[in-house]
Amino acid sequence: MFERLREDIANVLEKDPAARSTLEVLLCYPGVHAVLMHRGAKYLWQAGLRTPARWVSHLARFLTGIEIHPGATIGRRVFIDHGMGVVIGETAEVGDDCTIYQGVTLGGTSLDRGKRHPTLEPGVVVGAGAQVLGPFAVGAGARIGSNSVVVKAVPAGATAVGSPARVIVEEQDRRREEQAAKMGFSAYAVTRGADDPLAVALHRLIDHVAEQDRQIEALQQCLKRMGADVEACCEPLDAGALNRMVD
Question: Is the model's pTM score more than 0.85?
């Protein structure tokens, strides 16, 4: 138990620049307290003492603001940062070295008593306010953007953003993720330049139409110089204003 606790503290010191000492992490980090109390609740749950296990889980929720069902499986070096409002359901599985920020729900979408909560494979980062809902897997090293709603599997190493979440797996985005990793830990699962794919598509459409407007205007000017009577068919697109709306 003490070995696992030492791992948890070292993990926080590595990932959180605000953490300054072992004593500070031990006394002031609710994520560490919640995971520690979950281990006790899990032991009682596996021993068949379901009501005492739920009581320990409820006490941990009261003290930390983090609700972890005693039936959930939590791996090693799991970092729940800030943690207020985190909910992890009964059949959820969180792999080693995962990071979960405040307001995250690992929830279910059915009333079945079987597997109904997600599995986070090792190294997953789930951004603040994200909702991961359903009995599917989020692949190793994947990232879930803040406030995303994920309702289907995410491949290993991919980034999912938006509501409902869209998966970014293009080679350019992979290179962007690798560069961000070199620059240090990405707080709140926000990667520099990793835009919502829908926003990217809208920006490209707006730019494409704006370029067509410029070409049409140039053609009209040429026709006018040749003596043709040309009337403007519509007002030109305000690409700048539309791009700001998308952002």
Answer: no
